[in-house]
């Protein structure tokens, strides 16, 4: 999985040299679920990852145009998980209690999706605005009574909002900032829109957890950056901001919530230095550690493919569970198609009746899983394992077993 001669690129944050450490091969758009009748050629790109020698920001070597990823038919809805609904409601209440406390507070969310976080803000009677360029999920948020602007957040759109609505006390984003290669425009937009004492709060998958769990499927077209506290601190400093707080989160396989404020406006919490010290001690941002991760990914690829081929030879029936965006990385890297996994069960109506990106495995409604004649279920939605296994207890009681590949390939019976 490593490259003897390393390709190099230019860092999208500091302009330094990016050195490639992992190549996950030819990959499709992770959320582009096709119908069986489509004849248009499928879009593929080279999914390779590198690290900046200067600011340590881990990033994709190749950018996919944002319009290809976030569009009218974007199929992911944040409110699809009860766990995530609670997470966002709790997050909103906390922001309302600690930051949006003035006489007429204003909360802005970048990438509000179907409005699962902003609903709590709206119910509290607080002024709000969501940015969401993906048409159907934005429409779902508007149907819930939320104010949503159907644009990408960048400097020009942020200035327009400042002119019409005034400064924001909180700018928030979840699983969005890591999607955006043009970070400097985002930070210029934050600078234009944020009140002098306001905060920019965002949460995204954490590089440290990805390495510790070998959760390589967190790497796909939409995840352009893999943040660490050290790289976020450098990114903030390059744009006149300061990393003033960090918080480890259990959701989505391990995330960190970063809080940025204008440089000098707040005293950084002790846990910022503590997390960076932990990263230094474990070598999270070193090329040697990233190379070891690439080797571990190769082992998972080989082990998973071998297990599925053995089960097929034994006549076992295998289906997938969770047609997640990250499952595209797994299936395409490992060459997993309908010959090894007959179908994938998923709760999202927009994906049902379609085919998985690149490998074209049929997607079926999750409520059909209970009646499926399946011996093994390959759990692509491993970050929701507890929630899913509690829901599907009958499967294990009937003798079914779950296949998981994070942090290594194993079977849970």
Description:
This protein has 413 residues and is an alpha/beta fold. The chain folds into three domains: 8-60, no CATH class; 78-288, Rossmann fold; 315-412, 3-Layer(aba) Sandwich (Rossmann fold). 32% of the residues lie in helices and 24% in strands. The chain has 13 helices and 18 strands. It has helices spanning 66-69, 82-98, 118-123, 135-143, 155-165, 183-193, 207-213, 229-237, 270-282, 287-313, 327-334, 385-391, 393-397, and strands spanning 8-10, 17-28, 44-52, 58-60, 106-110, 127-131, 148-149, 168-174, 194-205, 225-226, 241-249, 255-262, 318-321, 344-346, 363-365, 376-379, 401-404, 410-412. The strands form three sheets. Strands 7-6-5-8-9-12-11 form a seven-stranded mixed sheet. Helix 5 (155-165) runs parallel beside helix 6 (183-193). InterPro entries: Methyltransf_Zn-bd_dom_put (IPR013630), Methyltransf_Zn-bd_dom_put_sf (IPR038576), MeTrfase_14 (IPR013691), SAM-dependent_MTases_sf (IPR029063). This is Methylation protein EvaC. Pfam families: Methyltransf_13 (PF08421), Methyltransf_14 (PF08484), Methyltransf_23 (PF13489). Residues 250-407 form the C-methyltransferase domain. Residues 11-70 form the Methyltransferase putative zinc binding domain.
């Amino acid at each position: 999985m490593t490259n003897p001669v390393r390709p190099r690129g230019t860092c999208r944050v500091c302009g330094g040299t990016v050195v490639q450490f992992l190549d996950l091969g030819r990959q499709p758009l992770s959320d582009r679920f096709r119908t069986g009748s489509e004849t248009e050629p499928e879009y593929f790109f080279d999914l390779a990852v590198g690290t900046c020698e200067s600011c340590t920001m881990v990033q994709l070597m190749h950018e996919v145009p944002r319009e290809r990823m976030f569009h009218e038919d974007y199929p992911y809805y944040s409110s699809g998980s009860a766990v995530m609904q609670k997470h966002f409601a709790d997050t909103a209440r906390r922001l309302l209690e600690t930051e949006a406390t003035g006489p007429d507070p204003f909360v802005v969310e970048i990438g509000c999706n179907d409005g699962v976080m902003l609903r709590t803000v709206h119910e509290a009677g607080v002024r709000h605005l969501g940015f969401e360029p993906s048409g159907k999920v934005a429409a779902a948020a508007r149907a819930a009574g939320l104010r949503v602007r159907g644009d990408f957040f960048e400097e020009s759109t942020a200035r327009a909002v400042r002119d019409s609505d005034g400064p924001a006390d909180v700018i928030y984003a979840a699983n969005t900032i890591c999607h955006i290669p043009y970070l400097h425009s985002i930070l210029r937009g934050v600078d234009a829109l944020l009140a002098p004492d306001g905060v920019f709060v965002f949460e995204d998958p954490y590089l440290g957890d990805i390495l510790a769990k070998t959760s390589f499927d967190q790497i796909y077209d939409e995840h352009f950056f893999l943040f660490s506290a050290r790289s976020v601190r450098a990114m903030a400093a390059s744009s006149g901001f300061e990393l003033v707080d960090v918080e480890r989160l259990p959701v989505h396989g391990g995330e960190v919530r970063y809080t940025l404020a204008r440089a000098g406006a707040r005293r950084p919490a002790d846990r910022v230095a503590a997390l960076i010290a932990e990263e230094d001690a474990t070598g999270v941002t070193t090329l040697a550690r990233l190379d070891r991760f690439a080797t571990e990914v190769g082992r998972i690829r080989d082990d998973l493919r071998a297990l599925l081929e053995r089960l097929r030879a034994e006549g076992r029936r295998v289906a997938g569970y969770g047609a997640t965006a990250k499952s595209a990385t797994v299936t395409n890297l490992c060459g997993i198609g309908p010959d090894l996994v007959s179908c994938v069960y998923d709760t999202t109506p927009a994906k049902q009746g379609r085919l998985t990106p690149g490998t074209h495995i049929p997607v079926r409604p999750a409520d059909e899983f209970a009646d499926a004649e399946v011996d093994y279920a390959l759990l692509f939605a491993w970050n929701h394992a507890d929630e899913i296994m509690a829901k599907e207890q009958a499967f294990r009681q009937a003798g079914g077993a779950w296949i998981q590949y994070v942090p290594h390939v194993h079977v849970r019976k």
